[in-house]
Design a protein that fits this description.
The protein is mainly α and 180 residues long. The protein is 46% helix and 4% strand. It has a two-stranded antiparallel ribbon with strand order 1-2. The longest helix has 17 residues, at 110-126. The termini are far apart.
């Protein structure tokens, strides 16, 4: 799990840093993980030289090397110890007196797993941090020019309605004779 978080944090750092320091708090907020957990991950990454830290105002972390020079295999190798090779795991079986040759049933799949491990390592070594970060970087907003209008900012008015009183005329209201 720490290895996955380390890869995600390093990609985040490569995508958002642009030669400025990024705080662990901002990365933790973006990935919704514990600050303390991410701090442990960055401690290992810093010791191995994959990130650099700066203290004080404006402090945080930056990449220790260019993103094009860091691969996923580099990150995983510092976060998790390499698995023992298939041969090493079975060496005890070879020393047993009843293990007559290297073709026993427990050894039948070794070539497959060695090939698989080599393929995975080769693939992870070919994926750079930059190739992952470029997919995560926020795109610059595209400015679209709007056509200029002479009427821009001028509100269209509704034609005014002539108000007519609904009550009878003042003269008629008093009961006076309009002719007199």
């Amino acid at each position: 799990m720490k290895a996955r978080m380390a890869v995600a944090a390093m990609v985040d750092l490569a995508a958002y840093s642009d030669h400025t320091n990024i705080t662990i708090r901002s990365i933790a907020d973006r990935h919704q993980v514990s600050f303390a957990y991410l701090e442990q991950v960055f401690c290992v990454l810093r010791r191995q030289g994959l990130v650099r830290s700066a203290r004080g105002p404006g402090g945080g972390y930056t990449l220790g090397r260019p993103a094009t020079d860091i691969t996923v295999a580099d990150i995983l190798s510092v976060m998790e110890p390499p698995l023992p090779s298939v041969r090493t795991r079975h060496e005890g079986a070879i020393d047993r007196p009843d293990a007559d040759d290297d073709h026993g049933p427990e050894r039948m799949g070794d070539a497959l797993w060695q090939s698989f491990d080599a393929f995975v390592q080769s693939y992870l070594a070919s994926v750079s941090l930059e190739s992952l970060a470029c997919k995560l970087r926020p795109e610059a907003p595209q400015v679209v020019a709007k056509p200029y209008s002479l009427n821009k900012g001028i509100a269209k008015r509704k034609p005014m309605e002539v108000l007519r009183p609904r009550a009878p005329s003042f003269v008629f209201a008093l009961g006076a004779d309009p002719v007199a």
